[in-house]
Each structure stands twice: as structure tokens, then as C-alpha cells.
Amino acid sequence: MKFEREVFGLLGFLLVLGALYFALIETGPAKFFTAPNAQKLFYLHVPSGLITYLAFLMVVGGSIIFLYNGSEYADRLAKSSTELGIVFGLMSLASGTFWMKAEWGGDIVSRFLTDMRLATTLAMWLLYIAYFVYRRQPETLQVKKNAAILGLSGMLMVPLSYLSSRYLRSHHPVIVGTEDQGSLDPSLRFGLYLGLFGFLFIFIFLFKFRMEIEKMERDIFKVKMEKI
Predict the structure, then answer these.
(1) Fold for domain 2-26+37-173+185-227?
(2) Which positions ≥6 away from 99 have C-beta within 8 Å?
(3) Distance of alpha carbon 52 from its chain centroid, rounded?
(4) What are the pLDDT digits (tens) for 118-162?
């Protein structure tokens, strides 16, 4: 199992390097962009955002299962996925902010308040920050249940953030869609897929690692409680 985990991590690292090579070397300055070089953040910004959605959907799934049958594994899954979602979400927000500033200019705060993709994504990320902070206290059964209820908010926040660029006021392009919706140029998809699968494999590596750590921490806690 450990060897399998390391393979995921190494493969993900190599794929991300490939995405960086594609973005920085293989592709020239992007056309029709005010900041064509800043556009190269696209190959990291979009994959990290999609992995953030995946992580928070896993929180929703783990929370549902925990509330249904009290599964400790589901609770560990939700907690671990939250932490990783926060990390990848920070990467997406940070890269998006740099790209936004270079491409659109203007005040960053006003952009986050007026662009619904930015606003909903930030709200989703802050909500799971709250989940993370709440779980720092002693993990009683009631704390786990309350956290699971908070985690369920992703059922609304994830699709709201993802669909906001289609149906709400936003400057963000639609990456997956029909040609009249401004879907991604086929020539750029290879680099996007490299970044997406690279981050996915890194996420799997980190998730497996974090789940093992969480299990060890809980086992140690149980041993300590038995000695009291």
C-alpha cells in the first residue's frame, strides 16, 4: 500500500512538471489576452480548482455516511478531505487572484464582491476553513456530528461555485461547454489534462498519507484513554 501511495505521488509530480513545461516552453503567449504570460497560470489554476471541488464533495459524502451510521472511516475521510481541499483551494484562489489582477486590473476586493465565481468560491473556501477550525477542539461525538452537518453545506456551495460562471454574473470563461459558450481551445487541452491528472494523483497521495496519520492519532488517543 505504501509503495502504491508513493507511485501516485511521483507520477503526479512528473505530470505537474509536464504541465509546467507545456505552459512555459511549448506554448507561446496566449492570443486575445491582455496579459498573455499571466494566462499560463491557467494550467495550474483550473486543475487546482477542480481538485478543490472533488475534495469538498468527498467531505459531503463522508458527512452523509457518518450521520447515517456513525462510521469512523467516513469521519476521517471528511476531515482529511477538508484539509486537502483547503490547500488546493488556496492554490486556486491565489493563482486566480494573480491572473485576475494582471488580466482585468482594478481593485481585487471589488472583483471578489462583484464576480460571482470569485465570491462563491471564496465563500465555499471560508466555510471549510470554519469546518477545519471547529475540528481543532476535542473530538467528542457531538463535535463530529456538528462538523458533519457543517460539511453538508458543500451540497449547495460546490455546485453554486462551479455553475456560477454559466448562470450568474461572472467574467470567468466556461471551460467545459459548447463552442458558443467559449469552451477551451483544443490546442490547450493537453496541458490542462497534464495538470489535472497531476494534481489528482498528488491529491490521492496526500489523501492516503493524511488518512494514515489520522488513524494513528486516533489509535494513540484510544490507548491513552484506556490507561486513564
Answers:
(1) Four Helix Bundle (Hemerythrin (Met), subunit A) (1.20.120)
(2) 35, 38, 39, 41, 42, 45
(3) 1
(4) 888 889 999 999 999 999 988 889 999 999 999 998 888 888 887
Q: How far apart are CA 90 and CA 94, in angstroms?
A: 6
Grid coordinates given for 103: 488580466
User: At a CB cut-off of 8 Å and minimum separation 6, what does 109 contact?
Assistant: none
Question: pTM of the entire structure?
Answer: 0.88
**In terms of Cα–Cα distance, which of 52, 31, 85, 13 is closest to 161?**
52
Contact 199, 65 (CB under 8 A): no
Name the grid cell of 63.
Answer: 458527512
> Cβ contacts of residue 210 below 8 Å, gap of 6+?
80, 83, 84
